[in-house]
Amino acid sequence: xxxDFAPGPAxxxxxxxxxxxxxxxxxxxxxxxAAAFAADARPEGLLHAVVATSTVARGRVGVxxxxxxxxxxxxxxVMTPTNRPALAADPDDKPHRFSFRFEALxxxxxxxxxxxxxxxxxxxxxxxxxxxxxxxxxxEAEAPRLGFEGGVAYAPETVGIGSPPQFSRGDVEAGLATxxxxxxxxxxxxxxxxxxxxPHAVVAQWDGDRLILDLPHQAPVLGRAxxxxxxxxxxxxxxxxxxxxxxxxxxxxxxxxxxxxxxxxARKLGRPVKLxxxxxxxxxxxxxxxxxxxxxxxxxxxQGRLTALEHRSDGxxxxxxxxxxxxxxxxxxxxxxxxxxxxxxxxxxxxGTPMAMRxxxxxxxxxxxxxxxxxxALAAGLDPxxxxxxxxxxxxxxxxxPFSSKALRACYADGAGRFGWAxxxxxxxxxxxxQGRLxxxGIGTAQFPATMFAAQARATIRADGGAALExxxxxxxxxxxxxxxxxxxxxxxxxxxxxxLRSGSSDLPDGGIAGGSGHTATAGSALHAAGGDALAKxxxxxxxxxxxxxFGADNAGFVARDGRLRRRDDDSRSESYGxxxxxxxxxxxxxxxxxxxxxxxxxACAMFxxxxxxxxxxxxxxxxxxxxxxMVGAFAAGRIVNPLLARSQLEGGxxxxxxxxxxxxxxxxxxxxxxxxxxxxxxxxxxxxDIPALDVLLVDEADAQVNPLGVKGVGELGITGAAGxxxxxxxxxxxxxxxxxxxxxxxxMG
Amino acid sequence: MTDMFPQQIDVALSVNGEAVExxxxxxxxxIDFLRLDLGLTGAHAGCEHGVCxxxxxxxxxxxxxxxxxxxxxxxxxxxxxxxxxxxxxxxADLQEAFVARNALQCGFCTPGMLVAAQELVASAPAxxxxxxxxxxxxxxxxxxxxxxxxxxxxxxxxxxxxxxxR
Lengths: 750, 166
Known about the structure:
The structure holds 2 protein chains of 2 kinds. Chain A is built from 17 helices and 28 strands. By secondary structure, chain A is α+β, with helices and mostly antiparallel strands. Among the domains of chain A are: 148 residues, Aldehyde Oxidoreductase, domain 4 (2-Layer Sandwich), CATH 3.30.365.10; 237 residues, Aldehyde Oxidoreductase, domain 4 (2-Layer Sandwich). In chain A, the strands form 6 sheets. Chain A has a 7-stranded mixed beta sheet, sandwiched between helices. In chain A, strands 7, 8, 9, 14, 15 and 16 form a 6-stranded mixed beta sheet that branches. In chain A, helix 8 runs parallel beside helix 16 and helix 11 packs parallel to helix 12. Chain A is globular. Helices cover 39% and strands 16% of the residues of chain B. The N and C termini of chain B lie far apart (63 Å). The mean pLDDT of chain B is 95. Chains A and B meet through helix 1, helix 3 and helix 15 of A and helix 1, helix 2, helix 3, helix 4 and helix 5 of B.
């Protein structure tokens, strides 16, 4: 196969790497099966571990038949709370806000179904699985507290990760009192599970006091520190290798009990240990999107302008830790209501702790908000797009600050044009397709914060004129290894083909977390800065060298292009990186860079990516079967580093939105507390046949404030807006407002 | 009871054109045999009950779920995985189209998707987009790149049909 695939006609390059639709650098490895995922590691002497998980949701583990498990041929070790080696840190401690409690056999308590209760290690995976089965646990079970009715309501101090649970601006009650019309609606969203294609796996090896982990991890340097803490090791003695992740979506940013136990088993038995969760074991200990119940109250004046917007969300969390879906925050920054109040409540139940799942808060909150806004538009007698334009926020409704950029009007216009929105009847049940199905059109606005974390990077320009860029970045499918290489190449003034990007390993400079749609902006900024630092050092050498064409150019400055430094005021005077280093007798020059958002920027403007999603559904008038027949999304997310990859991210997000609207729901058995559809047959993720024609439009948006690269992020934006657009289209087709997600046939049956 | 059944079974089969003989645990699934015993990393275990398609390989000419078939059942069979199909060049055009259109993201589903897509394109010369959706619905992509996958498979099917017509 050729090394590089050309996607159609070669694009005009203008000397830049960023902005070009380059194909993935890991593409060939992934289509040939060579890309190494954690579970592919097969070190010499590998043992296999299977974690036994609880089948009750609350109580204690009474009896485990350890003798039977140990008697099974090939079984080497059974770890239970009675013999589990000590850990250097308590899994129930929360030393920082990214710490979440987990179960590593610290006691015999069961706090949710699916919790680890023992670890069996054996010579083969078959023997380990049989050993785990032979444990035949018996429990002292207690009645589980489940659901909003059975759980314990409380007032959380924070929602999401460290966000305040309440916000208000203006007088909502006064706004509602003076409104010409008021809308109040209740929405329910279910528990959803990330279900990345790759099950959570680890291969753990000890080399003396060094620990090597092949482990999919969305924040390898943070993860290294956490593992180091549990094993009492200095961080530099722990190595996490995570070159490729088979999907993460927020569920692979944690330390989990099963992984810690596998590491303990490897140390105890003196051999490498592999553990991969079964699919059903991913419904509990590795996080999920918590269920919500939301209430929105909107007031509008006689013209349809919002006078007040109130959004309340109650979210499920576990009995022992906290992650409350920050759903109501979706209403803070989108529509121009003079009075806004958002608040959150929590409900504790005997379930695994929820966690960030692709667009945490934004997805659930947007689904409810966009439906409520549609109801308000109807009450105002306005087209839903016209209503959104009437209530367009020119400045951030929450802070009053200007937006760093906001091309949402263009998104509405481009998306509506492509979709053919004009002429949509206001009333429902007015359109049919050729098969007699009811057709409906709906719209939802997409919005996601332009997040930045902190990252560091290193750039090494070599005597051969190429460069190595290093950062502990993470490619979990979004294309970071490609997009970051494009930015890094620009940063060192080289073609992307001339640089080597080392990433995906915890011994590299900290790239932060791949999450919050902030990885490209954060890690990319650090790489770009590192390249600039290396170039500055190179220029300093050249400017001081009488033999260089750049001698004495200190004040003129330089530009770097195609592997050459050029005088900024006279680009005919230039020298290649290799020539500069050779004459200086250097093999390389090393630069470092760091990135984070200065507080002054966050205080000066509000930073969000936006979009408009349009959906068409067809509903069988007799059977009420719902099909999404087409979707158009138009998105503005600052500078698009790679339109080929960005389009895939946005399409993926829209499909997650469709899945939110129509498919995904984990159902708990009311007696046992188990997720009864804990597999990919019962837990519906969309297949090819569920997905219609999708159209993604990338709307130009320049943003000089969000970060020097002008990048906002596209990983989660596509989900927001999409679920609401589909729910609104279902109303337009049928006249039925379905306010419980996922929307199923029974919601439409009279 | 268990004594009536052998714990280990000797198998002889062809994998990617090479003869393989091995003694395997009786309960070992084909996917685990390919990955653990042979070190083939293309096919992946995703759901372990035949739904997600990440473990799809070709056995005696047909797409098979590696997680639903025991290694012992493959005795005497001809097995092809994405590695072998890459070496022979049989799916080079599909691979090229997948990369060119970014029809893969995390890539965990991709090898199985390619095996299934090759079976489809080889058996149905000019599938419609609806037929491609239907036939590939046993292969999940959670990321999810469905639109680009359909584009890639459709383009290859058309190119092959065009080439055959010439």
